[in-house]
Structures are given as structure tokens and as C-alpha cells.
Amino acid sequence: MYFARVLCASSVVVCAFVAPHVTFAVSQFPNTFITSKQQYEIDILAANRISQISEITSMADILIPVETPTETAVILERGTCPAPQIPDPLEDAISIQNINPDEGYDISYIPSDLVDISPHVPTKNKRVICLRKAAAVDLIAMKDAMKAEGLKLSANSGYRSYYDQYALHRAYAPTAKTVKYPRVAPAGHSEHQSGLAVDVASELAPGSFGSSRESAWIKEHGYKYGFVISYPEDHQEVTGYMHEPWHLRYVGKENALVLREAGYTLAFKKDYYMKPYLAVVLSNLKNRMARFDTMKLEIGG
Ligand code: DAL
Ligand code: ZN
Fold first, then answer.
1. Active-site residue among 244, 254, 261, 298?
2. Which strand ranges, in their side-by-side order, compose the sheet holding 244-250?
3. Model confidence pLDDT, tens digit, residues 220-268
4. Contacts of 166-174 spanning 24+ positions with Cβ under 8 A
5. Active-site annotation holds for 244
6. Measuring from atom 5 of ligand 1, which residue has the nearest CA?
7. At 114, which helix (H) or strand (E)?
8. Which numbered ligand comes closest to the C-alpha of 197?
9. Closest ligand relative to 231 C-alpha
10. Which residue CA neighbors atom 6 of ligand 1 most closely?
11. What is the pLDDT of residues 22-46, one digit of tens each?
């Protein structure tokens, strides 16, 4: 029965073919029908972890650092992406660090495992775009899942060094004065320096990502691949930046789920993460898991 669930998770068409009775049960849960066994396990992990935390003092208490995958389905190479001289001992902390105009990265921080995504994800003029390995793996998986639904995702920007960001910010600075919420972070304060942020685009709707089908898909499913939208609509006051539907931050699948359930991003107001608030997150996760259990019963698994 697991087999049928996994097939259903990957394709409704295959699902209907091998197990038509499953399609009916699954279709009653339109928000969960593509959720896989792996997603179910992530739900359990996230719920268990939150319920074990007795005191929340910061985001670091509820998030887990991004890990470098040891094996990948695709061959990922560093290419011309930079390597650090000395790996930063704070890399784990950096991977889940909230970043804003007050908190930032050291000038010398270069991620340890940057790889070139351009052989796998379309980029303008096949330009080299570097991301940390874990982000690259899941971005490729997300692009493939989108392709299977007729969508075309490409990438415009990934890792940016302190100096890249400095140049970008300097070029943008004159415009910045006229807007309430800026669009470019100062050097040392961009998520792009973490190698975990990627600006995506739609090949079907170049230039208007926010209204593209790709954008709608990411809003709905991006978290299953470990991505959150760092600067969502109506969050300008908290994030400090204008809405950027294309700017995704990779936090890993479990963290992305927790953040989604919290209805929030890495940028946060400290009191949002007090225990009562997390109780709501936990209860949401448990409800999701209960829906899975009902689904399993209905399909006889
Ligand atoms: N566009 C975002 C805020 C950055 O420059 O990192
Ligand atoms: Zn960006």
C-alpha cells in the first residue's frame, strides 16, 4: 500500500491507473495528495521536535542547520564557484541565521560547498550560478517537479560574495532613497552571501514572475523542497524589504515546513516564537498528520 501512496504522490495519472480506488480517497485531500512518505516523516520529525522544546529563546532553538548531502542523484560540480580558504566554524549557525540590515555575515564568509547549478537549471546565457549543495539538489528536484506539470523554472542569481553585493548595492543606492522598503541589501546583509538564496524566474512569463504560474506553484509547494519566500507580500514591516516573490531561501524541508505552519519566514519578531505560538504550529502539524492517517485508513494501508 505504501507503494500505491508513493505512486499517487508522484503522479495522479499513474495512481488512477494502478489503483483507481486510491484516487478517490486521495482526491478528498487536495492539499495533501502530492505529499510523499518522505513528507509524512518530515511532519513527524518536525512535530516531535517542537513538542520536545521546553523554552524557545530564538529561531535557532526550533530550526536545524542545513546539512551538505553526501550523495546526490545528479553530478554537481564546483566549476568556477569559489571555495573558502578556511571553512567557517559558524557555517551551521549561518545556514539558519535570520539576516537583515542589523544582523549580517562576516566579510570573509564564503560557503564551503558551492556548486554550479547552470548545467541543471536554465540560467541566462548559461551563466554560472553557485549555490550550496543542499540548495542545489532540492532546486533541481523542484524544477523537475514543475517541469512535469508544464512549468519552466530558471534561475537569475544565487551566491553573491560580499563584494558582489557591495557593487550591486552601490549601483542601486540612489533609487533606494525614494522607496520605503528597499530591494537590495547592503553588503554583508544579503541572504545571497549564504549560498542558500536563489532568485528564480519563469521562462514562460519572463519579467513578471509574481503573476506567473511558477510563482503560484512555489507559493503552494516550495516548502516541500525546503524553500521559503524570504520577503512575502504584506511582510515588509517585518522583513524590511519589498515583496520579492522570486527570492527564495533554502532552509531544508523540515525547517520550511515549520516556518510554513508558523505562517512566517526567517525574519521574525521575537515574541512570535513564544511557546503559545508554537503550540499552534504543533497543533497544525498534528492535524496534517491526522489527515494522513485518515488517508491511510481509507486506502486500506
Ligand atoms: N534582494 C535582496 C533583499 C538582497 O539583495 O539580498
Ligand atoms: Zn534575491
1. 244
2. 153-157, 197-202, 244-250, 227-231
3. 999 999 999 999 888 888 788 899 999 999 999 988 988 887 766 777 5
4. none
5. yes
6. 184
7. strand 114-116
8. 2
9. 1
10. 190
11. 222 232 333 333 355 666 777 777 7
